[in-house]
Amino acid sequence: MLEHVELFFKSIFIDNMVFATFLGMCSYLAVSKKVSTAVGLGAAVIFVLAVTVPMNWLLDQYLLRDGALAWLGPEYADYNLSFLSFILFIATIATMVQLVEIVVEKFSPSLYNSLGIFLPLIAVNCAILGGSLFMQSRDIQTLGLAFNYGISSGIGWFLAILAIAAIREKIRYSNVPAPLRGLGITFIITGLMAIGFMSFGGMLTGGDDAPKKDAKETAQKAQDKEVKNEIDENSVSYNNALNK
After folding, report:
1. How far apart are CA 244 and CA 242, in angstroms?
2. Of 77, 111, 199, 221, which cross-links 40 as Cys (Cβ 3.0–4.6 Å)?
3. Rounded to whole angstroms, how far apart are CA atoms 2 and 167?
4. Within 13 A of 199's CA, how many CA atoms are on the CB side?
5. Which residues of 12-48 are buried (b: 16+ CB within 10 A; e: fewer)?
6. How many alpha carbons fall within 13 Å on the CB side of residue 23?
7. What confidence tens digit (pLDDT) does each residue in 17-28 have?
8. pLDDT tens-digit profile of 197-230?
9. How would DSSP label each residue in 219-239?
10. pTM listed for this prediction
């Protein structure tokens, strides 16, 4: 349970897709002019990540990685299909995005029209593919953790685009210098928000580092004391030999 909680908060705040790795910036910048549009796209990203990351985890575990085909028989144990990862991951993502596009067009035509070309472009959104590739590189162990990582990564991206959309709606009425209006001030705000999110870096690790540091210092002091005692004993033995 603790592992799930740690992964959830770490994926949202510490390893945020936008502020830590700057993935999905095209949609982040283009669809963040209005909060309502940002909410719709953010929800779509959460859904796509929540579905594609576990599906790609299954593909990686039982088809792609070295020895994954052992369940077919011992003669397939040496096969390695990892070179197909990009193709299969993108195919899975494209399928889910088509499903999302059909659902949004059916139930919310206004949102579908406001998102425009950026809804089908989720299929090539590097944040979506990055979620599956990070899952693979970090060697997430269980399907539940993969599902957790997909949802939490999507929530992190959702919070990022929601925050910048709310700020951009407010600064529309601010006296922003002419050269910085539009994407200029948006990039500056994004950089400042990324710096702010860096402060979460010690949220889950600060408590673990302190005991390790104390234990290391204690061991070093004990070693220094042992060396000092040995030196003192040798000095006493040398002086006794000289006196004799």
Report:
1. 5
2. 111
3. 34
4. 4
5. bbbbbbbbbeebbbebbbbbbbebebbebbbebbbbb
6. 23
7. 999 998 888 889
8. 888 877 665 544 444 555 566 666 666 666 556 6
9. HHHHHHHHHHHHHHHHHHHHH
10. 0.77
